[in-house]
Amino acid sequence: MREWKGSVAFITGGARGIGLGIARALGKRGVKLALADVDEPALARAAEELPGAVRTFRLDVRDREAFAVAADEAERALGPVDLLFNNAGIVPHSAVEELTYAKWDLALAVNLTGVINGIQTFLPRLIERGSGYVVNTASAAGLVSDPNLLYATAKFAVVGLSESLRLNVAKHGIGVSVLCPGPVDTDIVAHTRSLEEGVALRDDLVPAVAAFLAGGPGIDAVGEMVVAGVERRSPWIFTGDEVRPHLEKRAAALLEAL
């Protein structure tokens, strides 16, 4: 059983959604929390509700210099970060006929490069200390593709990155999991629209997607699933078994193609 109390966690996208669920699960276990998000009002609300030592940082995960500053300030205030949750993300969407370089750049910068920035900011520190744990948030769509090309591309990359990172850092005493949520009841669709209207879901698609997400577990339940996954040092953390038949079909097709 992991000793949580006194640990320090840095959580991107930590002010709401899955990030806030993770923060709540850790906070009640005595973990000191550094929450990073682009939404300052949400950060203020999270800091007010969470127990124990909490520091907040207005951070766009695309900004490497700001990431380094936030990391330094978090460690000065709370102590060495040993739990890193690269969770910030958006759900960009574009019809294939309407793709542009700008849409690709935004989707990959937030959902993939943002994860890389978190890893590269903290990994040298974790290696130097010889311990730590990293959880990268991907998606079930990072294991079995769906028609959302912008989203699936980045999330497949996060899964591969996490699996390879796990192989590389085990010798340094560092664990890695990739979180592959299915539907989770969050406001990620609205958040994506507020960040960049150009990659938001079309209005006619929003009701069906919102209903799909609302059918999944809430953020507090997901936070507990993440804690349990870290306890098990699981390579993959899931929030439900909705993806199972799709994984089985994909695996069978891959094996058939050999």
TrEMBL record:
Residues 7-187 form the Ketoreductase domain. SMART domains: PKS_KR (SM00822). GO terms for molecular function: oxidoreductase activity. Keywords: Oxidoreductase. Its EC number is 1.-.-.-. The keyword Oxidoreductase applies. It is an enzyme of class 1 (oxidoreductase). Pfam families: adh_short. This is SDR family oxidoreductase. It comes from Lentzea rhizosphaerae.
